[in-house]
Automatic annotation (TrEMBL):
<dbReference type="Pfam" id="PF01297">
    <property type="entry name" value="ZnuA"/>
</dbReference>
<dbReference type="InterPro" id="IPR050492">
    <property type="entry name" value="Bact_metal-bind_prot9"/>
</dbReference>
<dbReference type="GO" id="GO:0046872">
    <property type="term" value="F:metal ion binding"/>
</dbReference>
<dbReference type="InterPro" id="IPR006127">
    <property type="entry name" value="ZnuA-like"/>
</dbReference>
<dbReference type="GO" id="GO:0030001">
    <property type="term" value="P:metal ion transport"/>
</dbReference>
<protein>
    <submittedName>
        <fullName>Zinc ABC transporter substrate-binding protein</fullName>
    </submittedName>
</protein>
């Protein structure tokens, strides 16, 4: 019985938890926030004033990506990930 109650509480937490979306650039983060409204939290990796063609991911960027529920990027692939 205790297991059923525990599983119910954990499932409720997962259902009502905000989805964390990390994007490569800020405009994608803005789009994700507009779509998800208050159900999502968003963050982006590459600062707006940096040339994203020359940006190299740092270890803390990769940690942020791996902790996210969803990673959104532009193009056919991010070569450094």
């Amino acid at each position: 019985m205790k297991i059923i109650v525990l599983l119910t509480l954990l499932t409720a937490k997962l259902v009502f938890a905000d989805v964390m979306i990390v994007t490569s650039i800020k405009p994608l983060s803005d789009i994700a926030k507009e779509i998800g409204k208050d159900k999502v939290k968003t963050d982006y990796i590459i600062p707006p004033n940096i040339n994203y063609h020359l940006y190299e991911y740092k270890p803390q960027d990769l940690k942020k990506i791996y902790k996210a529920d969803l990673f959104v990027f532009v193009g056919s692939g991010e070569p450094s990930i």
